[in-house]
Amino acid sequence: MESRNEERDQLTKKLLEEEHGRGDQAPLLEPKEVHRDEEEEEEEKLSMGRKILEENKKLWIVAGPSIFTRFSTFGVTVISQAFIGHLGSTELAAYALVSTVLMRFANGILVSDQVRDCKTSSKPLDIVLGMASALETLCGQSYGAKQYHMLGIYLQRSWIILTITAICILPIYIFTTPLLRLLGQDEEIAKMAGVISVWFIPVLFSYVYTFTLQMYLQAQSRNLIITYLAMLNLGSHLFLSWLLTIKFKLGVAGVMGSMVVAMWIPVFGQLLFVFCGGCPETWTGFSWRAFTDLTAIVKLSISSGVMLCLELWYNTILVLLTGYMKNAEVAIDALSICLNINGWEMMISIGFLAAAGVRVANELGAGSARRAKFAIKNVVLNSSTIGSILFIVFLLFRGKLAYIFTEDMNVAKAVAHLSPLLAFSILLNSVQPVLSGVAVGAGWQSVVAYVNIACYYLVGIPLGALLGYGFKFHVEGIWVGMLLGTFVQTIVLVVLTMRTDWNKQVTIAKDRINKWYFEQERRLNGSSNGSSDNTP
C-alpha cells in the first residue's frame, strides 16, 4: 500500500513538472510528511495557552470577516423587513412568507456555507447555499494540499452548475401566488407575496456568484475584500431603503429595488478582485476544463444541498404550519420577527460554520489529523461561549426588539411570549451549525443529510404538530417540537464528531484530491494526444 502511494505521489510530481515546467517547486499533492511532523513537534513544545492563541488567530482570520459578512448580508433582509413592516401587516406577512419559505427553499439547494447561509433565508436560495458548500469542501482541501490551480476550476464548475439550477427553480418565483393558494394561505397575503417574489429573482442569481466567490476567497483566507464589500452592501441598502421608501414613498417597490442593488454590489466587487489579480495562484483565467468531470461535482453538490435544505426547510414548515392557525396574520408576523432575530444571530454561528469548514478542510488537506481535531474543539468553544452570552441577553430583553419591525401591539406581545423559545434556539444554534461546518470540511454532507432527515422529520415535526395541534399549544408547541428535533441532531453530531477516526479522514481527503487530479490529467492528456494525432 505504501509503495503504491509513493508511486502515485511520484507520478503526480512528474505530471506537474511536465505541465508547468517548474521542477524546482514542490508538487502540489506531495505529502511532505517530514515537514509536517517537524511542525507538529515544534507545536507540541508550546504551552496550551499559546496553542489556543495561535489557533484562534487562524480561526478568526476566517470567522471574523465571515461573521461580519453574513451579519451584513442577512442585515439586508432584516432591514427590508423592518421597512416593509411599517407599510402594513399584510405586506409584512407576505414578505415573511417569501423570505422565510420561498427564498429558503432556493437557498438550501444552491448553497449549503456557510452559511449556511441561513436558517431564516429563503427557500430556493437554500438550494443555492446547499450546493455551493461543495465548493467549500473542494477548495478548502485543495488549498490545504497546495493544489492551488484547481480552485479556479472548481469555482467555474460551481458557476455552471448553480446557474443551471437557479434557472430550473425560476417557476417557483414566477408562480408564487398560485402556489401559496394551493397551500391554503390567505388570499391577500398570497397576492402580495406574488408581487414581492418577482423582485427576488435577481437576488437569487446574485446569490449564485456571491456565495461561491465567498467560499473560494475564504479557502485562501482572502477575507478583507469580503468584509469591505459587506459594509458597502449594508450601508447602501439602508440609505437606498430610506431614500426610496421614506423620501420618495415608493413602498414595497422602493424596498425591494434597494435590495436588488445591494445584493449585486458584492458580486461585482468580488469579481473585479479575482479577475484583476487578487488571487494570482488560484485564478489563471477561464478554462474549458471547467466543463469536464461535472458529474462528481454535481454528486457532492447534491449531497451538500440536501444536507442544508433539510435543515433550513425545517423552519419553513414551522412558518407554514403557523399559517393555518387562527389569527394567522399576527402569528406569522410574530414568528417571522423571531425567526429573523434568530437568523441574524445565526449569522454568527454560520460564520463559525464557514471557519470550521475551512480550518478542518485545510488541515485534512495538509495531512494533519491532530490539528484538525484541535481546530474543531477550539471553534466549538468559541461559538458556544458567544451563544451562552446571547442566550442570557435575549431572555432579559424578551419582546422589546419587536418594535423595530412593527408598530402592532398584538404582534409585539406575541413576540414577547415566544422570546424564551427564541433564546433556547439561539443557544442550540451556537453548537449545531459549527458541527455541520466540520461535516462540510470533512466532506460528510451525505451522512449529515440522513441525520437531518431522522432528527427533523421523524422527531421534530411530528412532535411539533402533536404539541401545536393535538395539545393546543399552538405556535409554542410547534416550536418546542422543532427545538427537540434540533437538540437530538446536536447530540448525534457531537457523538459522530467524537467517534470519528481523523487519521482515516486525512487519507480520504488525500485520496479524493489525488483521484480527481489524476482524472483531470488523464482527460487533458487524452485530448492533447487526440489533437496531435489529427494534426497533418
Task: Describe, in plain words, how this protein is organized in 3D.
This protein is mainly alpha-helical and 536 residues long. It has one domain (47-519). 83% of the residues lie in helices and 0% in strands. It contains 20 helices and no strands.
Summarize the structure.
This protein is mainly α.
Layout of helices and strands:
Elements: H1 2-20, H2 33-44, H3 48-85, H4 89-110, H5 113-116, H6 124-144, H7 149-168, H8 170-174, H9 176-182, H10 187-218, H11 224-247, H12 251-278, H13 294-323, H14 328-366, H15 369-397, H16 409-429, H17 432-442, H18 445-470, H19 474-498, H20 502-533
Helix pairs in contact: 3-4, 3-11, 3-12, 3-14, 3-15, 4-6, 4-10, 4-13, 4-14, 6-7, 6-10, 6-13, 6-14, 7-10, 9-10, 10-12, 11-12, 13-14, 13-18, 13-19, 14-15, 14-16, 14-17, 14-20, 15-16, 15-20, 16-19, 17-19, 18-19
Family: Belongs to the multi antimicrobial extrusion (MATE) (TC 2.A.66.1) family.
GO molecular function: antiporter activity; xenobiotic transmembrane transporter activity
Biased composition (Basic and acidic residues): 1-23
Q: Main beta sheet: strand number and arrangement?
A: none
Tell me the number of structural domains.
1
Mean pLDDT: 79
**Care to count the β-strands?**
0
Structural class: mainly alpha
Helix content: over 70%
Q: What is the helix tally?
A: 20
Distance between the termini: 44 Å
Low-confidence region ranges: 1-5, 11-32, 111-125, 530-536
Estimate the global geometry from the Cα principal axes.
globular
What string gives the helices and strands in order?
Answer: HHHHHHHHHHHHHHHHHHHH
Beta-strand percent range: under 5%
Rg over C-alpha atoms, rounded to the nearest angstrom: 24 Å
Keywords: Membrane, Transmembrane, Transmembrane helix
GO cellular component, one term: membrane
Subcellular location: Membrane
Protein name: Protein DETOXIFICATION
